Every structure is written in C-alpha cells, then in structure tokens.
Amino acid sequence: MGVEVAVEGLSKSFGSQNIWSDVTLTLPTGEISVLLGPSGTGKSVFLKALVGLLSPEHGKVVINGVDVCDCSESQLYEVRKLFGVLFQDGALFGSMNLYDNIAFPLREHTRKGEAEIRRIVGEKMEMVGLVGSEDKLPGEISGGMKKRAGLARALVLEPEIILFDEPDSGLDPVRTAYLNQLIVDLNAQTDATFLIVTHDINTARTVPDNIGMLYRRHLAMFGPREVLLTSTEPAVEQFLNGRRAGPIGMSEEKDSGQTAAELAELGDDQGVPEIIPQLGISPGVPERAAVRRRQDRVIAGLGSLTSGAQRAVVNSLSEDERARYGLVADAPTGPVDLGADRPAADGGDTVRLAPDAGFAGELPTEQVARLPREGDASPSALDSPRETPAQDVSESDAPSSADHVQPAAGAAPPRPTPHPRRAPEQRAPEQRQPVASAEPAVSGGRKRRRFWRKRGER
Ligand SMILES: Nc1ncnc2c1ncn2[C@@H]1O[C@H](COP(=O)(O)OP(=O)(O)OP(=O)(O)O)[C@@H](O)[C@H]1O
Questions:
Q1: Where is the region Disordered (predicted)?
Q2: Which residue, 151, 214, 240, 414, has fewest beta-carbon neighbours within 10 Å?
C-alpha cells in the first residue's frame, strides 16, 4: 500500500527567483493526484523537492514520519526507496535493451538472482503491455512504448509513491488515453500513491482523485477532483478549459481589466462544463482500494465543499454508496440540501444528508486551498512566474549541473538554507543519491559514478 506525502509550507527559490511559496497539501495514501499549472510555475521543481533532489528553503515534506527536507543522508536514502519516477522520456539507457533497462534497478539495488529478476521483469513488462519487446533498444521503439518501459522500470522495486512527470508529453491522444487507463489500472494493482504532472486537460479531467494547481507562485488549489472541476475561479476554469480568455496570459499574467473584458466577451460561453466521470478500471483488474478510502474522506468533509462540488461528489456515487453514507439527495436535479447546520462552503445549494448520517468532519484546510487574491500577498508574489531562470543553470538532476545558483549581478543574495542537511544541489555529484527505482541509488562510489555517467547519456 502507498504512503501519505504531507507537504507543509514549502517554498523554493533559485537565487532571487521565487518559484513557489508556502505550498501545503497532502497526497492521500494510494490515491491519484494531478498537479497542473501554466508552464514555468514549478511543477517539475515540486516533484524534485518531494524526492529531495532540490532543497526548499522553508517547509517540510513528511513521508513515514521523516521530513525529506531535514533528515540524515541515510534517512533520505531509505525514503527514496519508496519512490518510483516516470520521467518525460522514460530516462532509458540508450545502449541497453528494454529487458536490461527494466532489470537495472534490481541488479543495482538488490541481491536477487537472475531467475528472480527474470520473473519480476516479466511481470512488470506484462503489466505495461510490453511482453515480446524485451530485446528492443529504446531507439527502436515509439514514444508510448518508451513511457511504458520507463513505467515498468519504475515499478520493479515495488514503490509506494510513483511520480509521473508529464507522462502524456509527445503522445497522440489515443496513446495518451491508453496510458491513462494503464495508470488507473496500475494504481488498482499497486495501491501506491500517485502524483502526475500534466498539461493534458483530458488526463486532468478523467484520471485523478485529487487535483492541484500551481499559479502565481502559490498552490492555488488542491482538493478532490470535484472541487477543481466545478471551480469558478477564473484561472482554474481557464486552465481546465484550455481557453485564451482569462487571467493566464501567453507568458505572463494579464491585468485585471483585460481579463474582465475577455470574460465579458465570452458571455454565455463562460461556465463550467459537465464533469466527465472518472476512469474506471479495466475488466479483470482488481478494484481500486483508494476509491473507498477517498469516498470516506470526501464525504466526511462534504460540508466544507462548494455546492457544485458537493453535487458532483453525490452524483458520482452509486445508489448503494449513497445509502452507505446516508445521503438521500437526488443530486442530479434541483437543489440539494445538507441541512441547516451544513451549508455549502460558498453559501449556495447544499447537499442533504440523512439526519443520522453522522459525518461531521471537514477536509483539512490545506485540502481546499484557494487562489491568492490581490490583497493577500506582496506585489512580488503576484507577479507572473518567469519562464527562464534568473541565472544560467543547467538541468538540476544532471550530474554535472549545479542548481545551487549564484546570484546575478545586483540580485538579492539567496536566502540561507536553514536545514542542517546539506542541500543536494550543493553536494558533489558522486555524493548525490539518485531516486530509488527509476533513478536508482547505488551502493559504492564507483557504481554511483557509473550510474551518473549513464544518466548523462539521456
Ligand atoms: N536547477 C534550476 N536552477 C535554476 N532555475 C531552475 C532550475 N530548475 C528549474 N528552474 C526554473 O524554475 C522554473 C520552474 O521550472 P519547472 O520546470 O519546474 O516548471 P514547470 O511548471 O514544470 O514547467 P513546464 O510545464 O513548462 O514543464 C523555471 O523558470 C525554470 O527555469
């Protein structure tokens, strides 16, 4: 089973460039969450912060009781073993066939014999539909197959948390649809905690249990899918509809006058489209254990959601499920009502619970964040995110790079890193621990250098 990832007050800057501040959210155990946001808002940086490849200046990432931002090297090493990562290009070694690529973490990290390795690799290749392609080289296969091979490799060490960095990038819509189904099925089979960074609206609408959105250097929202999919916050609505009209501009945020004019011009086209039902599992795949856990959690906090989200949650339940939670609302039509003491968070229509339903809890506030408004933050926090780094730095996880950036001339000096553990970007390449499974950690210095050389091949 997966583990919960609790992120608290996380802030990251590169030199004087703030990427995001005060990000707080919890990735619930075994559920699928998606992180959205305009380009350059720091989604990939967020993934790297979760596995300790980048050190935030403030905040915590707590996994199994260990704060990834403030722990010993050995604790970090152990926590990283919980992760599997699917990189955009699959991060396969070009000179190895698919079998050896997928077997790589097992050979590097375990003492398993070749017979056992063959069994595990075969099992994972079957899970991702790659049986028969063992001997192919990455250069000989399609982008979709590369992703699936990367996914098989991320699975071999049985990770409890799987991060997907734009799994749909470069794929056509049909391949994306297959990959999305595969992700949902794999979640059912592994019950691991999934976090997917994507730009694909269809993926965001159909795959996750929870959605988050980074915007204007903050976590604008994070919560159950129904919350964001029914949100009328202009930036969230614009993003989830892929519209030009709205506060998100080509490379920077528009001013409020322009945004208002565009939204007025949209007229009746504004509004939130119907929620597409979430993808179910394929025939023969075991039920997703996360579904029931999530239902319990979301229903417990139903009263804290907006009326639109409440209605969407109720509509997503079967008759039996409604009965289980004592929900008597006929949500698809007409107003639904939670009772006088359970108004919807936005004061609108409410969902009615049976009097003895007994669900009183509320979602923790960090689960239902809201967009920062003009008055909330310093002007600089509301500036548009820059699309280029303040300094010339190379890819952060590349062995020879230094994402510990020097301040540009005249720029404010970077804030000191308060955590006692040395920031990973400040360590010599051979001291860095790659992420377990997809970025396997290695035992000796020689192996480590060999690994990083191979990573450099990508
Ligand atoms: N190692 C680094 N050093 C300095 N700046 C960096 C580093 N890594 C990322 N950045 C900067 O952080 C910002 C956010 O980058 P990131 O790749 O996380 O954005 P993103 O939201 O994933 O974008 P996209 O959706 O286009 O992939 C960018 O301005 C990027 O240049």
A1: 326-361, 373-458
A2: 414
